[in-house]
Design brief:
Layout: H1 2-23, H2 43-46, H3 49-52, E1 68-72, H4 83-98, E2 102-106, H5 110-118, E3 124-126, H6 129-137, E4 142-148, E5 154-155, E6 157-162, E7 178-180, H7 186-198, H8 203-206, E8 210-212, H9 216-224, E9 230-234, H10 235-243, E10 252-257, E11 261-262, E12 265-268, H11 274-286, E13 308-310, H12 316-324, H13 326-340
Parallel strand pairs: 1-2, 1-3, 7-8, 7-9
Antiparallel strand pairs: 3-12, 4-12, 4-13, 5-11, 6-9, 6-10
Length: about 350
């Protein structure tokens, strides 16, 4: 009887062990394993419960091995000796004060920079007011800093013509050919189009040929070279083009100047870790008074020296600008269609 009881007990223990083994989940694959006979096993299956709620780490941290990627809209031609050259000094200064490494690129177009930021491929970007708001709407931009120049954070758009055309005022542009920059540019497209509409000139119906030059400097050069009667760009870009000897001084004159526009912002990707965002804000806010940083290094849009960078600029200023441009959005597609058909 005792022998039978022992045998029965042993059988029950073995059976329980078999059931327990059969009900246990398979061991998760490790990085060294390729799945073997796991069939449908995935990384998600093997993740620990706590890991499922953790966001993926940001791929770049500003180290030498993983530099932060900066992309600039091609405001002045998008060349290595253009927009990039303008912003290298300020990022070198931030590198010096905050031990961060940056890899600076220039986008092929404004829309390319917007999409790269929105897709998380870029960490920091230089925009115009309009392109910043477009990217923010896609969830890809958070305001980082705005330059302060001579005590203010504004600049101006203009419509220009050659001094010898006989065109004296914006109303004289009816039937004339006009060059714009990029369609997402604040001061080489959106504000000039708004100024034309304010002057009762419909760009689609009342202008002659429309040229989309792609950048401020290309728009200015098209006019200076006689390819169009007038052009659109920022006053800063005209000054830079003259300084760089791309356009002869006095060759172009302004026939219309815009209202003040919020200075082009530098934005950061909302996905950056909070501590890295704060490090960037601190860097831009104090760079003008940091030890070892010279005034020549504190530069902004157009490569001009600026007083400092404001990291507490009110976003409502950009919204005011956007409200003025809603009417332009309604005809933008028709303007581009007219330009493409010529």
């Amino acid at each position: 009887m005792k022998l039978l009881s022992r045998s029965l007990l042993l059988s029950l223990v073995v059976a329980a062990s078999v059931v327990a083994i059969g009900c246990s989940p398979p061991a998760p694959n490790t990085p060294d394993q390729k799945g073997g006979g796991g069939g449908d096993s995935t990384a998600k299956d093997s993740a620990k419960p706590d890991d499922k709620n953790k966001p993926a780490s940001w791929p770049r941290d500003g180290s030498k091995e993983k530099p932060l990627l900066v992309m600039l809209v091609p405001a002045d031609g998008g060349t290595e000796d253009g927009t990039k050259k303008d912003f290298v000094p300020i990022f070198n200064a931030i590198s010096k004060t905050k031990s961060l490494t940056f890899d600076i690129k220039v986008g092929q177009s404004y829309s390319a920079v917007i999409e790269a930021m929105a897709n998380g491929q870029v960490d920091i970007a230089f925009f115009g007011a309009v392109s910043y708001l477009q990217c923010k709407k896609k969830g890809g931009a958070e305001l980082l800093a705005v330059e302060v120049h001579k005590g203010s954070s504004i600049y101006y758009s203009g419509i220009f013509t050659r001094a010898d055309t006989g065109i004296e005022k914006i109303e004289d542009l009816k039937g004339k050919s006009v060059a714009f920059g990029d369609p997402s540019s604040t001061s080489s497209f959106n504000y000039p189009a708004a100024m034309l509409l304010d002057a009762k000139i419909d760009p689609v119906k009342d202008l002659g040929k429309i040229v989309m030059a792609g950048s401020h400097v290309n728009s200015l050069m098209a006019c200076a070279e006689g390819k169009v009667d007038a052009c659109c760009a920022s006053f800063d870009s005209l000054e830079k083009a003259v300084t760089d000897k791309k356009i002869e001084a006095g060759k172009l004159k302004a026939i219309k100047k815009s209202d003040p526009i919020p200075a082009p912002p530098i934005a950061m990707n909302p996905g950056l870790p909070a501590d890295l965002k704060q490090k960037l804000r601190d860097g831009f806010a104090t760079v003008h008074k940091a030890e070892g940083v010279t005034p020549d290094m504190v530069r902004g849009y157009g490569g001009k020296k600026v007083d400092r960078y404001d990291t507490e600029y009110k976003e409502s200023e950009f919204m005011k600008a956007a409200e003025k441009l809603e009417v332009v959005d309604k005809i933008k597609a028709d303007i581009l269609k007219k330009a493409g058909a010529q």
